[in-house]
Amino acid sequence: MPAPIGVIGMIYESRPNVGADAAGICLKSGNAVILRGGSESFASACAINAAIVEGLTAAGLPAACVQMAPGTDRTFVADMLGAAGLIDLIIPRGGRSLVTRVQQEARVPVLAHADGLCHTYVHAAADPVMARAVLANAKMRRTGICGATETLLIDAAIAHGLLPVLVAELAALGCTFRADERARAIVPGLQAAVPEDFDTEWLDSVLSIAVVDGVDQALAHIERHGSAHTDAIITEDEVVATRFLSANDSAVTMWNASTQFCDGGEFGFGAEIGIATGRIHARGPVGPDQLTCFRYQVIGEGQIRP
Prior knowledge:
Blueprint: E1 2-4, E2 7-12, H1 17-28, E3 32-36, H2 42-58, E4 66-68, H3 74-81, E5 89-93, H4 96-105, E6 118-122, H5 128-140, E7 149-155, H6 156-172, E8 176-179, H7 181-186, E9 206-212, H8 215-225, E10 230-234, H9 238-247, E11 252-255, E12 274-276, E13 284-286, E14 292-294
Parallel strand pairs: 2-3, 2-5, 3-4, 6-7, 6-10, 7-9, 8-9, 10-11
Antiparallel strand pairs: 1-14, 12-13
Helix pairs in contact: 1-2, 5-6
């Protein structure tokens, strides 16, 4: 039987709408939630929470099923992280330092992602028109979300013809670049990448570029530098696409689609409470269904086990 997880601890930073989203998703999935927002928007979070409590009371539901930290004291976060037996799952939403701290210090299971270092690999058999449209959307639609492409991997077999076009079109949209030596040999004006650029989640109009020799080298690059969030391949070769889909171990792998489709609403889950990149329980967008677990009811007629 589906069952709620229990009490969810939601630790988030500046955006007060996260508290409203979390409360709604937790209520819909039968969970209680304890919210701890950031100091920048504490007054807004309090106002939102008061409205939620008023609605719960009017609906005849326990007001205590959505609770909020009384202040922004950091000790409350430490208390939440150590509240094994009282909180069943912690979900952090915020910058890398917050998520890393939660993952390192929690004595409670954590559902989270630290980085959205997403890749788009343009294979030798890619439709160039599709590649141009998908990459522009994956990088520039919204640069500050975790599903935005941060690195372009392009196959050496088509890089000489296609890479200058991709760079020109993205530059016209305001994008800047950090490119490896092979890419700069094709487009000499590109800024040289330093090694850490390929480990950087830009969350801005910046794109890292590397030229690769085939799908295995692309997969190796993603394995070395990726964050297991979302990666995409653009190709008309079904065999290569199947290889990429099966070998890439990120939470979400896409074929001929923008990485920015990694979203609870786009997946049909409804609103999401976050993206999970771990390998236990939920992976990818986390909505109401992902905030449930299972228990078993066994109904017999006197059966005994031999």
